[in-house]
């Protein structure tokens, strides 16, 4: 059984889609948290001020834009930032959006 | 008579507002064009695929986010990229969004 959801290749990354993912403050906070943590985090490990179904939607938008890679460990869905691939496609973008000063605004 | 519209100070720049301005492809194309041109451009100098009133709205959103400074020369409303101030507030953001590779996506 294939439980890994589809992920775009780097060559498919689209700036418009990435910006639409990151313009949402809740989704941007997920990315900022992953940058700060420096490690993968389970969906349940984010303190998101939204319902579970909305949170699932937010993770899907991030995954489809190429910002995160999702995989299972047992019943936990884990989230990994696709840092290197995003930096390859759009150099400097994640840095610009997740530095402490930007994140505080 | 004061014809110069209000502009935010750098200290008032807000990342959420800047991203909401830049997530629109037409508005992002205005910024990319100003970066490429390296000089101020009159509102009429942009080839925007929208009505004049919609174009005016797009310029207003960019101005209110701090991305452009508008001023008059005779009856022409000119647009200047606030490059240095935006780089000060959000280092690397404009570079990341307007490099040739990003602009092409």
Short description:
The structure is a homodimer of 105-residue chains. With 105 residues, the first copy, chain A, is of the alpha+beta class.
Envelope shape of chain A? globular
Strand content of chain A: 5-15%
Instruction: Find the structural class of chain A using helix and strand composition.
Output: alpha+beta
Global Rg of chain A: 13 Å
Report the biggest beta sheet of chain A as strand number plus sense, adding barrel if it closes. 3 strands, antiparallel
Largest interface: A-B, 23 and 22 residues
Number of helices of chain A: 6
Strand order of the largest sheet of chain A: 1-3-2
Quantity of strands of chain A, as a count: 3
Task: Give me the strand/helix succession of chain A.
Answer: HHEHEEHHH
Give a written overview of the molecule.
Two copies of one chain form a homodimer. Chain A is α+β, with helices and mostly antiparallel strands and 105 residues long. Chain A is built from six helices and three strands, in the order H-H-E-H-E-E-H-H-H. Chain A has helices at 15-22, 25-37, 52-65, 83-89, 93-98, 100-104; strands at 41-42, 68-73, 76-81. In chain A, strands 1-3-2 form a three-stranded antiparallel sheet. In chain A, a hairpin with a 2-residue loop joins strand 2 and strand 3 (76-81). In chain A, helix 1 runs antiparallel to helix 3 (52-65). The first copy, chain A, starts with 14 loop residues before the first helix and ends with a helix. Chains A and B meet through helix 1, helix 5 and helix 6 of A and helix 1 and helix 5 of B.
């Amino acid at each position: 059984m294939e439980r890994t959801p589809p992920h775009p290749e780097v060559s498919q990354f689209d700036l418009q889609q990435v910006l639409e993912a990151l313009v949402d403050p809740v989704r941007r906070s997920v990315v900022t948290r992953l940058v700060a943590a420096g490690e993968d985090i389970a969906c349940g490990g984010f303190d998101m001020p939204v319902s579970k179904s909305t949170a699932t939607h937010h993770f899907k938008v991030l995954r489809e834009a190429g910002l995160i890679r999702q995989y299972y460990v047992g019943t936990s869905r884990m989230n990994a930032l696709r840092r290197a691939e995003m930096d390859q496609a759009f150099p400097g973008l994640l840095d610009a959006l997740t530095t402490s000063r930007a994140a505080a605004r």
